[in-house]
Amino acid sequence: MRRARLHAGIALQAQAAGNDPLEIRKIRAFPLREPGSGRRYTLVKIETRGGLAGWGECGEFTRAEFAAARDAVVGTMASAYEIAWRKLGQARAIRAAVNMAQLDVLGKLSKAPVYQVLGGPTRFKARAIARLEGPAALDRAQTAGYKAFLVPAVPTEWRNQGKAYMNRIRNLMNMMRNAAGADSDFVLDAAGAFTPGDAQSVAAELESFHMLWFDEPCGVLNLGAIRKIAGENVTPLGFGRTVGDAQGFQNLLSEDAVDLLRPDLAVHGISQIRRIAAIAEVYYVAVAPYHNGGPVATAAALHLAASLPNFFIQQVPLPGAQSDIDMRRAIAGDAIEKVTGGFLALPTGPGFGITVNEQALTRYQEAA
Amino acid sequence: MIRRHFLSGLGIAGAAGSRLPAADGCGCALAPQAAMSGPVGAAALHSVGTKVRITGVKVFGVSLTPDSDRPYVFVKIETNQGVVGWGEATLEGKAGAVIACVDDFKEFLTGADPMLVEHHWQSMYVHSFYRAGPVMGSAMSGIDQALWDIRGKLLGMPVYKLLGGPSDPAGVRGYYHVRAGTPEALQKLRDQAKSLGVTCVKTGIPLYYEWIETNTKINRAVKHMQMMRENLGPDIDIGVDFHAKTSPSVAAILIKEVEPLNLLFVEEPCPPENVKAMARIARRSTTPIATGERAVAHFSCRELIELGVIDILQCDINHVGGITALWKAGAIAEASGISMAPHACEGPIGGLATVHVDAATPNFLVQEICSGIEPETKEKVWEEWLGFPAMRMVKGKFPLPTKPGLGFDLTEDALKRYPFGGTRPMARVFHDDGSVAEW
Question: Which residues in chain A are contacts of B49 at CB distance < 8 A?
Fold first, then answer.
């Protein structure tokens, strides 16, 4: 009797499993290469029984990883993105893309932007920063609407630097600010390549320059060095592009060693960065996802940024070659990476709010 | 589709502009707000929000018996689209204060877009300035659950799907409380549990404990736990709730003595304010420690995790800050390998809301319900309200609601038979010498 009532009141999931429109039927991968920069990224498309398609993006992965991902998610519910993440432990290089694609599907199914699936927007635009690449990069970035710029550190001939290098770095940053105007902001990106001593010296040299933050000043696993830099300087430190697990970020935070978390979109996808951001929130620290991929990940980043109370800024690749810019626009449209007054607009259409042009993909696809 | 109609396109800008400083203001907060040129609050997000607007925030005290010491507090949020959401803000012993606190938040919400749940959470928490506390945490919890209920209904999906679930379509593993106290009764309970597929139960320890305890009382508590294991057998997981009745000194002894029982966890071995005190207990035993039911906001879980105190985190969806904060607490715990076993000792709305979060929590262990293996009066009332036996397990799992939102319908009329009997103090217990005891 009780059981009969139960069945009436709570429809059993087993019924849904057989013909759930959310069931993933197919997964496809499109490895791409930008003609100018040579930047590589892979788009992943999942298709559901209900006829919805979702897109995601990650870096390169192997055939074996693709097969493992296919086995793990085909036949499962697209909604179960947190569960799929754990099943994709053998296909870590692809799981960020699968995660994005699952959320794209959920948004499309609910006819709402992905940030609405995730708890609603916390902001109506997202601050943007361009990594300066190629010739006349600052001019191009300014023309494109950016007001914040990530400057790669000057490559060095020797491991350890002296006064001349400190002068060079300071002059470079001052020159940038003079050229870009007083209301422009800068980040120095050392890409983890400085020795701990150089990282400290550069951080000290630029303390009063008021960079937004000093990105990846030294290797992220060198906690002793990071603690020393953080202890000596008040320049905010950003770390995280090579950190693969949430626990790595938690360790940085509990060591008081970091001011800004930089998880890579192509590694962590949307929901893992949301989990990392929840950790960061209780340390009063913000998140600025690292991004060196294509425009689909930019779209995913915007929905993520909208959903996070402790989002700070989104890095967007700004290619030097026109052919690359054309490629990015051909894939996902003109609007998604458009910057106005230093901010990206949030998409308002269902899912990621972009239409991926599958025909254009074939033009840029890498030979398998 | 109605949904498409109000989920896309621009919303209506809400009350724009700014307020003048009040005559009794300190001037520290209103100056920057007055300087803002655009719309403030939720209205600032109109370009990325929906056209749905909150038209009413109602709060109900519900006493199953007129002298109930822990009346339920339910929150109902109404919208201009006819969609309503329900949440639970029950705070044991402080119903009146929570009802008043929900009323305090009405102005935050009325006229705003209900889809901005993270925004509303942040605004309620941050703009209250005096952060956290169980009264505010419970009020926010009720509001947050109701907003997630609305979100699921508007998006046409059960909340656990929005959160990334389900991990298991059959439901989430649960445990009942052990009411039995004799070997015979426990053996009967073991057989019942086995036939129902129930894999886990929880018990308490008898009596109340002074700062330092006698050999007699220590032995009695240890024997109680041994009796549980001996009669329930090795196949049922047993949690033991110390309910913070013990000091760190007494708890450490008890926990050490019962190490061979391989309990699933010992819960709240001391009061929760002093994390280092609990850490000291945890360091002295291999028995897993569970705590967190009195935590408000995910911020309060940081130290427990950082100091390596806990194996299991037990935040309560009706106090921690609803679905939003329980989800975040779970995410923070997961990074350190800590499991989630959310507390649920209030009404059916919070219970069901927790099940949604559990179903999308990769580090979920087991879900509580403060009920015995045999249904009691309150479960009959819950079924009368919701139309199904909420929070009763099937094959050891709480089934997942499948309807959009939190997955139930409730009417104000259904609650009318159980009017609010007012706030009543909870149990008050004292030691032999008249001094105040923890219970």
Answer: 120-121
- Reading the block at residue A171, the tokens are 């002059």
- Please indicate whether, in this complex, the C-beta atoms of B116 and A271 are within 8 angstroms of each other: no
Three-state DSSP class for residue A39 = coil
pLDDT tens across B313-343, in order? 999 999 999 999 999 999 999 999 999 999 9
Instruction: Tell me the CA distances in angstroms from B162 to A82, A102, A313, B77, B151, one per residue in order.
Output: 10, 11, 25, 20, 9
d(CA A112, CA B419): 39
Query: Is B332 within 8 Å of A2 when comparing Cβ atoms?
Result: no
Contact between A10 and B8 using a beta-carbon 8 Å cutoff: no
User: What is the pTM (predicted TM-score) of this model?
Assistant: 0.94
Best of B118, B120, B296, B410 to mutate (most A CBs within 10 Å, chain A): B118
**B38 Cβ under 8 Å from any chain A Cβ:** no
**Closest residue of A to B323, CA-based?**
A119
CA-to-CA distance for B356 and B165, rounded, in angstroms?
8
B362 contacts A79? CB cut-off 8 A: no
Q: Is B243 a catalytic residue?
A: yes
Q: What is the DSSP letter of A347?
A: P
- Round to whole Å and give the CA distance between A334 and A338: 7
The structural domains of chain B, with segments of one domain joined by +, span 161-402
- Distance (Å) from the alpha carbon of B409 to chain A's nearest alpha carbon: 10
Determine the 3-state secondary structure of B342 from DSSP: coil
In the predicted model, residues of chain A with pLDDT beneath 50 are 1-16
What is the spatial distance between Cα B193 and Cα B373, in angstroms, rounded to a whole number? 7
The ipTM value here is 0.93
Tell me the torsion sign for CA atoms A273, A274, A277, A278.
Answer: negative
* Domain B161-402, CATH: 3.20.20.120
Q: What is the pLDDT of residues B159-217, one digit of tens each?
A: 999 999 999 999 999 999 998 889 999 999 999 999 999 999 999 999 999 999 999 99
Phi-psi region of B395 (alpha: psi -120 to 50; beta: other; left: phi over 0): left
In sequence order, what are the residues at sequence separation of 6 or more whose Cβ sits closer than 8 angstroms to the Cβ of residue B100? Answer: none
H or E element in which residue B380 lies: helix B377-386
Under 8 Å between Cβ of B19 and B36: no
